[in-house]
Design brief:
There is one protein chain. By secondary structure, the protein is mostly helical. Helices cover 37% and strands 8% of the residues. The chain contains 4 helices and 2 strands. Helix 3 packs across helix 4.
C-alpha cells in the first residue's frame, strides 16, 4: 500500500526500500477521512489483513475467496 511494506499486523517494516519511497506515507494515509482499497487474489490476504489491522483503510473491495478467508472481517 503506497509502496510501503508492512507486516500482517499493519506495522511498518524497517526496510531500505521503505526509506527510499517518494510518496504518501502510511501515517498520512491514516489521517485521510475515507480510504478505499481494492485488492483481490489469495496472494493478497496477508496484505489485506495488515491494512485492516493497521487501520490504513476504511472501505475494502475484494473478491469472494478473500472475504471467506477472513480478509473481509
Amino acid at each position: 500500500m503506497c509502496a510501503q511494506h508492512y507486516d500482517i499486523n499493519g506495522r511498518l517494516l524497517d526496510t531500505d526500500l521503505n526509506k527510499r519511497v517518494i510518496g504518501i506515507g502510511l501515517e498520512t494515509l491514516r489521517s485521510i477521512e475515507t480510504v478505499v482499497a481494492v485488492a483481490g487474489g489469495q496472494e493478497k490476504v496477508k496484505a489485506i489483513l495488515g491494512a485492516i489491522r493497521g487501520k490504513y483503510i476504511d472501505i475494502l473491495i475484494t473478491d469472494g475467496p478473500n472475504y471467506s478467508k477472513g480478509a473481509g472481517a
